[in-house]
Amino acid sequence: MRYWNKFCASQVSKVGRCGLAFALLMSSFGCSRLKDSSEIKAAGNRVGEFKGIFATNRIIVTRLFKAGELKFDLTRYLGGDASLIELLGVYSNIGPLNDFRNGTPNSLNMLLWNMALSGLSKDIAESCGTQQIVIEKFIRIDYNPHFADRLGALCKEPVIDFKNEESLLNFWWAVQGFDAPREEYVAWRDFFMSPQSPYAKASSKEVINAMLKTMFLNPYFLLEH
Amino acid sequence: MIFSLRNSFWVLAALISFTSCTRSESRIKNTDPEFWAKRAWLEKASRAIRFGDGVSPSEDVDSLMSKSKEQIIDLFMQDKRFIDTVVDFNLFYLGLKDKSFFYTMPDGARTYIGVELSPHAFTAARAVWEGKDYFSIFDMNQPFYLQYGLDSISAEKNPTNKPEREYRLEALNQSLLETDSLLDFIKSAKDHQGADRKVFCEEAGKKLNSISDAIDRSGVPFQIRDRFTGFGFSKQLIFGCFVDPSSLHFEAILKEVLVYKERLFKLKDILDFPGVVTPPKVQNPLEIVAIKDGAFGIPDDDVFFTDQTWVLLPNSSTNYNRKRAAYVLKNYFCDDLTPINVALPSMHTGNKHASDPSCASCHYKMDPMAGFFKNIGIIGNDFENTNVLVFDDGATFKNEALNTYLSAWLAPTEAGRKWNVGYIRSATDSSRNSYGESLRDLVTIIKNSSEVKQCLTKRMTEYFLGKDQVYDTEWVNSLAQRFEQAKANPNTGDSSQAFKEITKSLLLSNTFVRADPEKNQCYDFAPGHENSTLPCEISYLIKKNCVQCHSSNGAAGGLDLSSWKTQGNGETNFSYLDAAGLQHSKKSTFGKLLESLSTADESKLMPLGMFMSPNDRAQIYKWVSREATSISGGRP
Question: Does residue A180 form part of some domain?
């Protein structure tokens, strides 16, 4: 029928790429959560499940990009396979009614989430000094001024001003919003502001990449709570 | 803890070892816990009301933060994204939420595919925005929402490059001519008998195809054509030919084709309708063009399900509409068909499954519910008075076979009603049940039942606060009271007000602000709630249905259901003393409880000699069986 076609046609012809090697390394952390998450599913509760690909895409757009931005599509980072959407937590009517599918974290979908969000983190870090992200060389999307400002404040060497955490807090708020409790921020801040941090001597792009990844992969960002 | 977040999961995420290092607390403004908590609430409330959109950096956050939570909710509800949320909730409530609903076209226009699954969800959401009747979600009378415009005419189809409108009109006129030709043919064929009728059917089929081709040429999409002319075209002709040409009834066919021609004539008017020539690019559900109140002569169809939903819930000659019955019970009545043995009346119910106790546990209420659909055949076509029924799988019943099929729903003669069709609350006391015959009757029952309002409220709770979090039933039912009040003021928009007020209560609830709620704990209670030692999932239901006979000062059978505590034997349990005054083990207590709730012997069924609603029973039963299975190694 026409309407299904419309939806499907829009999903094809996406070119993507992925840092598979790194993602594979990362897949190990999926397992550490697997056990308690599947128990949650057994109890049938959406709490502890992914917010889902559509909701997460929306959150990223609101926080990072210009209002009404439509070009941003997180699944571009997944190599252009439309069927992968099904693995990232969606409501689907095909089969049982009202089924939220693949909401429970498992090693496969965590790998996919990780691929997508690592790709995004890297592209944002690469954009330091500009006002827009460049995806796959040709898709350019403007940041909203608020985010551009917060990002810009960190795109300098050295990234971290050990006497002043303001730019860190502002960056956390811009990306993570207020989804996670304050303790999460404190732990994150302390990690990056520690002189013993492996990132203490890294370049600003490396640090920002790591900061973004750790925020995006925080369960408060990805999961219902 | 539902999931342990405190161990800073992100550290693992980066595959870097955590170096603990404590720093002095922040000196920066706005990190005090109260600010953080309200700001987190603001974000969550924004997403809940404004269709997943959090507070955007371009909004005046300071001004929002200075307002009360109530004021913030009111403000957010004036944002058009709230309509999307209501549509989304409605589809969730109706069990039709689908990923494609979220789809935005590359040019920014939204496609509202849900409208083809359920116009009800959209009508009711628009009603909330416009202050009209939210309960229109139950109405069968739904406008036709125009999702698609006319198909474009390719140069290939139109080689002489005629003006588009002229080309379309010619095609539609052609379809009228073809219809005339069919009418003439039917008149002349009236006397055809026997084998001739096969020939008749072949010829008629060709003419039908010509009509349909002409409409296709005009570029009127099938969704519009079907709504104007009715899917069945002429049921008598199509299904008559399909099933048994010898049964063709020419007078009836003539009548149907004449009606069809009339509607086809009206279809020409749509060519000039702005919304169809250039369909507006909609950004929200308010902008979808609705054709209603008989405009263009489109009859107000009775829509219980749409074609798409009928197909999602197909019926077969062996299914007896049970899939649909289960759908209605689950979605409108929150009855998930937990199999609990029921006491059956001694008289025969006329249905084989309903008389075997283990099958009856579901079928006693499912089969009568299925009866509302008894005349519905392929893709939702009503076959009443046609002497034939074609099922979704193509199987066909007529005459004798059809009568046998329908007789599954005949009530026993002593019942005093023709059909055993209805919403069943009690297998033994028919005065508690709501009977009817048609889908219209079902809608009336749905609109009038308190169960439906409680279920709707429960779904709102699940939608806004989380699915399968445990909620105190008394609290949910106290919120549902607001819908009950609105029923008393039909058509005033009070039901929309009720919808908003209940949503507001949910966003102001304790559960909503909990970041990491315990699944089996209740955080909100009805006004006047008395503390109880019982698990909150069932404490209200036990109090309502059992405690009058099973309390500390009148423990029938030695069982006190009014408190839940550590007993002498060290188990957390109800107090339940045997004849010698000794506490029963938890295992034996829960074994008895299970039996008391599900025995088919009415003289032992609890609550003794009293009625308890099937939903209450199912909820207590589910808790009891979960507790019973969790007892392991307990001494009997």
Answer: yes
Domain for residue A94, yes or no?
yes
Q: What pLDDT score does B399 carry?
A: 85
CA separation for the pair B571, B561 (Å, rounded): 15
Angle separating helix axes B536-545 and B614-630, nearest 10 degrees: 130
- Tokens representing residue A61 in the block: 């757009």
Q: At what angle do helices B450-465 and B473-487 cross, to 10 degrees?
A: 120
How far is Cα B268 from Cα B229, in angstroms, rounded to an integer?
12
Higher pLDDT among residues B475 and B194, named by residue: B475
How far is residue A205's CA from residue A199's CA, in Å, rounded to a whole number? Answer: 11
Residue pair B617/B541 in contact (Cβ under 8 Å)? The answer is: no
Nearest to B509 by CA among B472, B468, B535: B472
Query: Angle at Cα A67 formed by Cα A64 and Cα A69, nearest 5°?
Result: 80
A94-129 pLDDT, tens digit per residue, is 555 667 777 777 777 788 888 889 999 999 999 998
Query: pLDDT category, A225, cuts 50, 70, 90?
Result: low
With contact defined as beta carbons under 8 Å apart, do B38 and B65 qualify?
yes
Alpha-carbon distance B43 to nearest alpha carbon in chain A (angstroms): 7
d(CA B533, CA B564): 5
Q: Is residue A3 part of a domain?
A: no
Q: How far apart are CA B390 and CA B235, in angstroms?
A: 10
**Hey, which residues 359-398 in chain B have their CB within 8 Å of chain A?**
none
Spatial separation of the C-alpha atoms in residues B233 and B231, rounded to whole Å: 6
The label of the residue with tokens 């839940």 reads B564
Residue in chain B closest to A30 (alpha carbons) equals: B13
With a pLDDT cut of 70, the percent of chain B lying above it is 89
- Return the number of other C-beta atoms located less than 10 Å from residue B628's C-beta: 15
- Considering only CB atoms, B14 lies closest to which of A59, A97, A213, namely A213
Of A3, A7, A97, the CB nearest to B95: A97
What are the structure tokens assigned to B491, written together? 């058509």
pLDDT tens digits, one per residue of B313-364: 999 999 999 999 999 999 999 999 988 888 776 544 455 555 677 888 899 9
Which phi and psi angles does B74 have, rounded to 5°? -60, -45
The amino acid at residue B286 is: L
Q: In the numeric block, which tokens belong to residue B192?
A: 């055809």
| Residue A17 maps to a domain | no
Residue A91 predicted with pLDDT over 80: no
Residue-wise pLDDT tens digits, B441-471: 999 999 999 999 999 999 999 999 988 789 9
> Is the previous residue joined to A96 through a cis bond, with omega within 30 degrees of 0?
no
Residue A48: which of B2, B11, B327 has the nearest Cβ? B2
3-class secondary structure, A162: coil
Q: How far is CA B426 from each of CA B345, B346, B615, rounded to the nearest angstrom?
A: 10, 14, 11
Q: Residue A182's domain spans which residues?
A: 37-222
Chain A hits for B33, CB-CB cut-off 8 Å, are 182
**Chain-chain contact of A178 with B36 (C-beta, under 8 angstroms):** yes
In this structure, the strands spanning B572-576 and B559-566 are antiparallel
Helix axes B450-465, B494-507, angle to 10 degrees: 40
Q: Is the pTM of this model over 0.90?
A: no
CA distance B171 to B354: 55
